Structure formats: structure tokens, C-alpha cells
Amino acid sequence: MISAVVPAFNEEESLGEFYKVLSVNLLKLDKNYEIIFIDDGSTDSTLEILKKLASKDKKIRIFSFRKNRGKAEALTVGFQMAKGDYIVTLDADLQDRPEEIGKLLVKAKEGFDLVSGWRKDRKDALKTRLSSKFFNFVMSAFWGVHLHDYNCGLKLYTKEAAKSLNLYGGMHRFIPLLVAEKGFEVTEIPVIHEKRKFGKSKYGFSKIFRDVPDMFTILFLSRYAKRPLHFFGFVGGVISLIGFVSLFYLFILHLMGEKVGTRPLLTFGMLLVLAGMQLLFTGLLADLILHISQKDNQGVNLEEGFKYKTE
Q1: Domain presence at residue 49
Q2: Fewest C-beta atoms under 10 Å: which of 76, 152, 155, 253?
Q3: What is the Cα–Cα distance from 221 to 224, expressed in whole angstroms?
Q4: Is 114 helix (H, G, I), strand (E, B) or coil?
């Protein structure tokens, strides 16, 4: 069975045509399927249109937020509610073509847990393409999961990979990395990308300023969530070292007879030492809290990390 998860926010113009194209192409796969629409607090007639579609097609399931909560939470709900062995996500604006689902499915059967679309010939505005190229370059360079297009809406997951995700905020833009960090196999294939025919983009060039803080969040969660002292200790140690070097330099000048009490570097050095020590103790406290919480949570499900096991 395959589950199509479709987040929708103010997509009244495209939903009718999108549903027709999607349902036709899911039928071609010769598999049982369901279509899960997540209405992300739309303020237009999106929900009413979805209800009409669902009244005619029992394969449609609808989950509607009372207010806009973002694409990440919409996807998480879709993943948790999906019943399929494979879960495909795509946007409802028809820029991502449902005809490409079959290609993703064939690739997934080669042993991949996530097959992401690569909009090789992307039809968006220049500013959108530039910000996306910058984002993809940074992600590939710093995290080592080398993809051309992290944020393509067209992706196909195995059930295990999709249900392992708990997305919020802007984390949907980092899905390939999050899946790879959990030990799943990730790849991408080129897909057709169409010009926008309906509505307008929900994202502009300004999203790059939201991506940067999210990158730091993902860095911490993916590499230091289980060992926060390594992160805070390193940063605090570097800052403290700079402070100590500054103060030692002033100490040498003081021994040589120069007055250092009114120098700004003295205040700067002391602040760096104090800030570094605070970060170090923050990491220590975070480690202690993590240790205590894991000790108390003896019922944690270890099986979710297994790739294979015998009974």
C-alpha cells in the first residue's frame, strides 16, 4: 500500500486538478493507496473543497488544523496517520508532478529508505533558486549528505523512515539529513518541475534568514543532543582561551611597568573568561539533566534503531 501525504495551505485554485492528476497516477501503480490531505489552517475554501472530494472518494482522508501550524507539523501528522508501506509527499500546487511517483518507487525498491526529488530544471524565480542553491551547498558541505535539492516537496519514504520523524518549526527543510542521521539510506533522482500555475509561493528570499538559525538547531540536535557538554565545552573553552590570552598579554605589560587598569582589553578579557565558564557549566548541567532523564526513562523503545533483528 502507498500513502500520499499532501500538506495544503490556501490551495483552493489547484486542488481539483491536482486531485485528478494524483488519483490517475496512483491508480497506474497497481497498488492499494490512500490520499491524506493535511489542511494547514487554510483561510480560503480549501477545507470545503477537500470535503467534497472526500465525499466522492473514500480513499481520501482529511486532517485539518484549526490554525496554520506550518508544513513540518502537517507532514508529521501525515506520517503518523499513514497506513502505507511507502509514503510519498508532494505539494498541491502541481509544480511537483504526480507522474514522477512511479520513478521514486522503482528507486526505493533498490534498497533506499528515502528517495528525494531533484528539481534539476527548476522553474521558480531567480531569487528562490539562488537561496536554494546556497542552502543546498551549505548542507552538503557541512553535514556530508550530498544532495542537489534538500527541500523538494516530492519525496518517497519507507514507512519506518517516515514514522521516525518528529518535525516542527522549519525542520521539514532538513528531512534528508534527519533521516540519514537515523541510519536510513538516502538518495535522490531528477524529477520534472513545472512553472507555478496556481496561487503564489509561500516562501521568498527572506527564508534564507530563517534557514540559518534552523541550521544551528539541526547541528545541535544531530550531533550534540546526546552529548551537550561536547558542544558547550568546546565553544566555552575557545572563548575562555581567548580571554585568558588577552589577560596574560596584559599581565606581561603590567610586569613591564605599563598601566593596564584602564584598557578596554582588560574588561573584554574578563568578559570572555566569564562567558566561557558559563557556557562550560551550561554544558555540564545539560549533561547531568540528560543523564538523569535517561536513567528515569527505563522504558525507552530501543527497537526503533534496529535495521535487522532475529526473534
Answers
A1: yes
A2: 253
A3: 6
A4: strand
Residue 309's pLDDT is what? 46
Domain that holds residue 195: 2-223
Helix (H) or strand (E) holding 155: strand 155-158
CATH of the domain at 132: 3.90.550.10
CA distance 91 to 17: 13
Cell matching residue 279? 557556557
**Residue 4 contacts residue 34 (beta carbons within 8 Å):** yes
pLDDT in tens, 48-102: 999 999 999 999 999 999 999 989 999 999 999 999 999 999 998 888 889 999 9
Model pTM? Answer: 0.74
The overall longest dimension of the chain from CA atoms, in Å, is 90
Per-residue pLDDT tens digits for 226-257: 778 888 888 899 999 999 999 999 999 888 88
Domain shared by 32 and 159, yes or no: yes
Of the residues 223, 250, 274, the one at which a domain ends: 223
What H or E segment, with its residue span, contains residue 285? helix 264-296
CA distance 34 to 60: 6
pLDDT single digits (tens) 276-308 = 999 999 888 888 887 777 665 555 454 555 554
Measure the CA–CA gap between 200 and 10, rounded to whole angstroms.
10
CB 119 within 8 A of CB 40: no
- Quick check: helix, strand or coil at residue 303? helix
Side-chain-side CA neighbours of 279 within 13 Å: the count stands at: 18
Q: What is the number of domains present in the chain?
A: 2
Q: Are residues 130 and 254 in the same domain?
A: no
